[in-house]
Design brief:
The protein is of the alpha+beta class and 206 residues long. It has 2 domains: 2-78, 3-Layer(aba) Sandwich (Glutaredoxin); 89-205, Glutathione S-transferase Yfyf (Class Pi), Chain A, domain 2 (Up-down Bundle), CATH 1.20.1050.10. The protein is 52% helix and 7% strand. The chain contains 8 helices and 4 strands. The protein has a 4-stranded mixed sheet, covered by helices on one side. Strand 3 (56-58) and strand 4 form a beta hairpin. Helix 1 packs parallel to helix 3 and helix 5 (131-152) crosses helix 7.
Length: 206
């Protein structure tokens, strides 16, 4: 199977970490997308994902799957190893809830800040910007940091005692925040310690 992506972009990072957690990276062919030159908006790419986003997973039967959570769920089911999505009904529900919060409260908020309140990817790609909305989302991300600091004061990982897709999503959001120059306050000690711990995981450090 193939994954169309841009290495080190936030959502592709999520999928690459998931693959590494399942020791499945070697099972995938990565196809780089020249996003900065608009390849994601070409007719050929839109046939794979009409929303023009990366990553996109192409299965051997020609099926295209986009959306990072959907791709991770496929990876989690297709390959052996500890589940990233949870085993029991309760685990799956809690992980789903917390991954959605990590996505909306941090990753998506940071992305909106980056694309609207900074130069983003440049004027040729950032064809519409609402600075006030971007700044508002930047504040939402900072509130998200505080929320997850409180969560991580009570548990080893975002959705409990096991590493999961929720941790992957939050970690990608924090990496993006660093790139977008949204600082993580030093007083959020639990969040900072968690980030340092996750960064040392073989799937991330690689």
């Amino acid at each position: 199977m193939k994954i169309y992506d841009v290495e080190n972009f936030p959502n592709p990072l999520r999928v690459r970490i998931a693959l590494a957690e399942k020791n499945a990276t070697a099972n995938v062919e990565f196809v780089p997308v020249d996003l900065l030159n608009g390849e994601h908006r070409t007719e050929a790419f839109l046939a794979k994902n009409p929303l023009a986003g990366v990553p996109v997973l192409e299965l051997d039967d020609g099926t295209f799957i986009s959306e990072s959570t959907a791709i991770t769920e496929y990876i989690d089911t297709a390959f052996e190893g500890p589940s990233l999505m949870g085993e029991t009904a309760k685990e799956r529900a809690v992980i789903n809830m917390m991954q959605k919060r990590a996505e909306s409260m941090v990753l998506d908020a940071v992305a909106t800040y980056f694309h609207h309140a900074t130069d983003g990817l440049g004027p040729e790609l950032e064809t519409y910007q609402n600075v006030a909305w971007g700044e508002k989302q930047g504040e939402k991300a900072r509130q998200g940091f505080s929320y997850f600091n409180d969560v991580l004061a009570q548990s080893a990982f975002v959705a409990g005692e096991q590493f999961s897709i929720a941790d992957i999503t939050l970690y990608a959001g924090m990496v993006f925040a660093g790139f977008a120059q949204i600082a993580i306050p030093n007083e959020l000690t639990h969040l900072v310690a968690w980030q340092e711990k996750v960064a040392k995981r073989p799937s991330v450090a690689a």
